[in-house]
Specification:
Layout lengths: L2 H10 L8 H35 L6 H33 L11 H8 L12 E3 L2 E4 L11 E4 L4 E4 L4 E4 H9 L3 H10 L1
Antiparallel strand pairs: 1-2, 2-3, 3-4, 4-5
Helix pairs in contact: 2-3, 4-6, 5-6
């Protein structure tokens, strides 16, 4: 396999997730070889730059030295960009993403945050202009200072100065951590 084939495969499957192990290792070898070649080329360009500094000493030839430095710096910058990209590809092939295995994903968190807070609130809520108002479940009070903002799916208590998302609400009411709150909301 050559670099063109590896780049074509990467264009079809950017994270290499659906590739079989032998093909992944072959692609990894191609990119590692290219990365080594690029690093060697950068070292050669740096040596050429140093050699040009040593050989061009006359002021009349200073323009040639400036031109050489400009060309060399541009070439090194391009090669460093490619080396970073290839380095990232090699590292992603060395440490493949694992299945979640029961762990919480971003999709789970989004789904949990979509749960309406008013479904979790125990008590009487009074609607008022796109909000819901009721007594705060976190401190004792007679007048309603707890407000649920339906559009943002967030809450705020003006009595105890606490607020947040539905996840924060579950964490405080059930006295649990973030992961337990997400798991609870997913089950709801």
């Amino acid at each position: 396999m050559n670099l063109e084939s590896a780049e074509f495969i990467r264009s079809l499957c950017p994270d290499f997730r659906w590739l079989k192990r032998p093909l992944k290792s072959e692609i990894k070898q191609v990119y590692e070889q290219e990365l080594k070649t690029i690093k060697d080329h950068i070292i050669t360009l740096n040596h050429d730059r140093i050699k040009a500094n040593q050989t061009i000493t006359a002021w009349s030839q200073r323009w040639a030295l400036e031109l050489t430095h400009e060309f060399t710096d541009a070439a090194i910058a391009n090669l460093q960009t490619v080396a970073k990209r290839y380095g990232w590809i090699v590292s992603s092939l060395k440490h493949p993403r694992k299945a979640t295995g029961g762990r919480i994903t971003d999709a789970d968190i989004s789904m949990a945050k979509a749960t309406p807070i008013e479904n979790l609130y125990e008590g009487k809520l009074r609607p008022m202009a796109g909000r819901l108002s009721g007594c705060c479940p976190f401190h004792s009070e007679k007048s309603a200072s707890f407000t649920i903002y339906k559009a943002q799916n967030s809450w705020w208590c003006y009595g105890c100065s606490q607020g947040g998302s539905v996840v924060d609400f579950v964490m405080l009411t059930r006295k649990c951590n973030f992961l337990e709150a997400i798991k609870y909301l997913i089950q709801k």
